[in-house]
Design brief:
Low-confidence stretches: 1-37
Oligomer: single chain
Mean pLDDT: 86
Number of helices: 2
Shape: globular
Structural class: mainly beta
Radius of gyration: 36 Å
Distance between the termini: 68 Å
Number of strands: 50
Largest sheet: 31 strands, antiparallel
Strand content: over 45%
């Protein structure tokens, strides 16, 4: 008879290392009888839990062994067993050392090697953990989803079958741990989880929202919650536009391999032909390629004044049907070593195709250089970077979708920027190098740059200086081509005196060589080769002072820069391609080169002063304010350009042409962890605002938030159709009213542009949305009303309902 033994340890834990070790010992003994000497054996493999594959670790108050069966009971705490990188807890546990079968009852909790947790009142597991039976089964996945059933049977390593089951991606307990009704759940007569198919299959499925049944399907399937991505339909995107009518986009994801997939996303419209969107993604060992495009065969549509009465007929189709398409592709490769490379390819057949069909996120920054809003860029580039050097070589071309003149009657007749007025850049080379170690006690940096630009059409100001800008018709004139090579040496040393004053003397040497062709023939100018140079020396001085007021610190830092350069050689024959826009702020004000490019630079004697005040107090709260400006010995009229609507008049868009620059005022503040803000402004000598921007973010409660921003540009002094001054106010936020229910809102107001004829004052509101919001840990749903008065929209103002839905586990509307 088998030996019967009971071990009662009271408060003492019984730790038993057993398992198949008993069988292994018997097998080894038999082998020893058949051989003269035992063969050497490899040491056992120890897992991450410190156990060999055949070992069991057991903790229990009471343990009983009958032959190969160990029975354990937890009187004060549940029994704990660890084996094969899994953990099992239960009120009662039995384990067959010979068969490797475990049976557990009473508050069973099982954690598999991947970290998924299973709960049950009764659980049986076989030796390979490939099959088992559970009663009152419940499991929680790593992503928070839960699956429950009356009974569960694990048929094999990959297939689990559940009867009378419920699946939910939502929390089933509140913050205090009390049970609650999940927001979204799927209840089914039978559920099969097939890990080889990476899917969960349902029979007689009922969808519940807040516990209320809303949909029945005899069969349903979705990817396993642990799957990052799988083939199938994504959440559809409904929308409405007065030009397209009711639209529904149905994205389908086809996963080819773990590193490749296709996204087929047709957009069906009630008023116009469908638009087919396609996307292909492939990840390589050291890079990724994404190719995206769309196609439709349709006539143009929008607001057109067909009868000439000044009133636009809404959403009229115009012209012949033709193929319309877009292509947006990019790739990045970063192999081991200092080199990396990439490309972008972006083109569209219509300048308003993205607006007409509401193409998602067409303007993205995917390459070395960016085509800013409403400009597409196609480029190839390569980079080489080490600790002490950097080199980039690129070539690119642009396609513009910008409006240069808004039609006063209908946006369908807006005038767009001509692509021939934009340069083709091939190549653009940037390089810099720093020696390893100080030179004359300071940091030495060598820079080089070279670029070639080719333009088909003639462009006047601000590319060409006022002296060579043609006053008459320019249609048919060739664009100015230019080539430039630049070299620069920059040396700077930092010294701190005993009083804490920071001194930084610097020297900057620069030389440029230009070759300019296709200059205006009416001026009698030929192709020119021009050289110029500049030498600058100066010193930066800063003296930070700090004082403590109770629990707050105040830091006052006055700063100044004195520099002297050789006179600027701003030959009027040199085009201005890269320095048309200057953003004066705290950082750029103290640079030797305040222009972003090479075509314009400053010379002469300059004194720049400023002061920054920072207040910091407990809990990370702070506020800072900077005020500064620059003074120069002489004015620089070469920075002046013609006023767009009065070419005979000149104005200064840079704020640097006078002997005193614009004032720069910059501030940021965060009085609490729920309020943050920043602001920036440039003011002329009279105190008038030329440019300003301010933004404030606020949060209150647990999820309530709002953002307000204001931006203004008043640099152009004369009003007119070509005046590009602007003034916008933007507001967005959400306010929860009851539980997870709230209101979402957003709006953009154009305070500069007047409404179109026949429009009421709300024409000032470019875009606006307001809707009802439901948001919890499981899903977010918005239903509201949207109006779009964007002047660039070819189909005119549009308003209608919108729906946005994002589901945990299943994804959201969009891709």
């Amino acid at each position: 008879m088998p030996r019967h033994r009971r071990v009662d340890t009271g408060g003492l834990r019984l730790r038993l290392l057993a398992g198949a070790a008993v069988v292994a010992l018997a097998s080894w003994s038999g082998a020893a009888q058949a051989q003269d000497a035992p063969a050497p054996t490899a040491p056992p493999v120890v897992g991450p839990d410190g156990l060999t594959p055949d070992a069991v670790y057991l903790e229990a108050d009471v343990a009983l062994r009958e032959g190969d069966v160990i029975s354990a009971t937890g009187e004060t705490e549940r029994v704990l067993a660890r084996f094969r990188n899994t953990t099992l807890r239960a009120g009662r546990l039995s384990y067959d050392l010979n068969l490797g079968v475990a049976t557990a009852d009473d508050r069973v909790e099982f954690v598999d090697p991947e970290g998924n947790v299973i709960f049950a009142s009764h659980l049986e597991l076989d030796s390979d953990l490939k099959a088992g039976v559970a009663v009152d089964f419940a499991t929680r996945f790593r992503n928070g989803a839960s699956l429950m059933a009356a009974t569960a049977v694990r048929r094999s390593e990959n297939v689990s079958e559940l009867n009378y089951a419920l699946f939910t991606p939502c929390p089933i307990c509140d913050a205090e741990g009390n049970p609650k009704e999940p927001s979204i759940a799927i209840q089914a007569e039978k559920v099969v989880q097939d890990e080889s198919l990476r899917a969960v299959l349902y029979r007689n499925a009922v969808f519940r929202v807040g516990g209320v049944p809303v949909l029945y399907l005899p069969y349903f399937a979705h990817p396993d919650p642990t799957v990052e991505r799988a083939s199938g339909f994504l959440v559809p995107t409904p929308s409405y536009d007065e030009g397209r009518g009711v639209s529904l986009e149905l994205p389908y994801l086809q996963v080819v391999s773990p590193s490749e997939d296709w996204l087929i996303s047709p957009q069906f419209n009630s008023r116009v032909s469908p638009l087919l969107n396609l996307q292909w993604r492939r990840r390589f060992e050291n890079g990724i390629v994404v190719l995206r495009g769309g196609y439709t065969y349709e006539r143009n549509f929008g607001d057109f004044d067909l009868d000439g009465d000044g009133d636009a007929e809404s959403n009229v189709k115009f012209g012949d049907r033709t193929s319309r398409s877009y292509f947006l592709g990019h790739g990045r490769f970063d192999p081991a070593g200092p080199w990396r490379w990439g490309f972008t390819a972006e083109r569209t057949s219509d300048k308003t195709l993205f607006d007409r069909y509401d193409v998602r996120d067409p303007y993205q920054d995917n390459g070395l250089y960016y085509g800013d809003q409403r400009r597409l860029i196609s480029q190839v580039y390569t980079e080489h970077q080490t600790d002490r050097s950097y080199v980039s070589v690129a070539a690119f071309a642009l396609q513009s979708l910008r409006v240069v003149r808004f039609d006063p009657v209908t946006p369908a007749l807006n005038q767009f920027e001509d692509d021939g007025a934009l340069p083709v850049v091939a190549p653009l080379i940037e390089a810099r190098w720093e020696p390893d170690g100080p030179v004359f006690g300071g940091r030495l940096r060598l820079r080089g740059s070279a670029v070639s630009l080719y333009r088909d059409d003639y462009v006047g100001s601000p590319v060409l200086r006022p002296e060579i800008t043609l006053p008459g018709p320019t249609l048919g004139l060739p664009g100015v081509d230019s080539r430039r090579v630049s070299g620069q040496v920059d040396w700077r040393r930092t010294m701190i005196s005993e009083m804490g004053v920071r001194w930084e003397p610097f020297v900057d040497l620069r030389a440029d060589l230009y070759s300019v062709g296709d200059l205006p023939p009416a001026l009698g100018l030929e192709e020119e080769t021009l050289g110029r140079g500049r030498a600058t020396a100066g010193v930066d001085v800063r003296y930070p002072l700090i004082r403590r007021f109770g629990t707050a610190d105040m830091i006052l830092e006055p700063m100044a820069q004195l520099s002297i350069s050789t006179d600027a050689d701003l030959d009027p024959r040199l085009p201005n391609e890269d320095s048309q826009t200057v953003e004066l702020d705290e950082s750029s004000l103290f640079r030797v080169d305040r222009f972003p490019g090479y075509d314009l630079y400053e010379g002469g004697l300059r004194l720049t002063t400023g002061v920054r005040t920072t207040l910091r107090w407990e809990e990370g709260r702070q506020a800072s304010l900077f005020i500064g400006r620059s003074l120069r010995a002489e004015e620089e009229p070469a920075f002046l350009v013609p006023v767009p609507d009065a070419p005979a008049q000149l104005y200064d868009p840079t704020g640097l042409a006078s002997d005193t620059s614009d004032w720069v005022v910059q501030a940021d503040f965060s009085p609490s962890d729920r309020i943050r803000g920043w602001g920036h402004a440039t003011l002329d000598s009279s105190g008038n605002v030329r440019r300003a921007e301010i933004a404030v973010d606020g949060r209150w409660g647990r999820r309530n938030l709002a953002t307000v921003s204001y931006i203004i540009d008043r640099s152009n002094p004369l009003a007119g159709p070509n005046n590009r001054n602007y003034e916008f106010l933007q507001l967005a936020g959400q306010q929860f009213v009851y539980g997870n229910w709230g209101v979402a809102f957003s709006g953009i107001a154009d305070l500069e542009r007047t409404p179109r004829p026949g429009q009421p004052d709300p024409g000032y509101l470019v875009q606006s949305e307001i809707g009802v919001l439901f948001d919890d840990e499981c899903f977010r749903f918005e239903l509201g009303w949207r109006r779009d008065n964007t002047s660039v929209r070819p189909s005119g103002p549009s308003e209608g309902p919108y729906v946005r839905l994002t589901l945990a586990t299943f994804g959201g509307t969009g891709y």
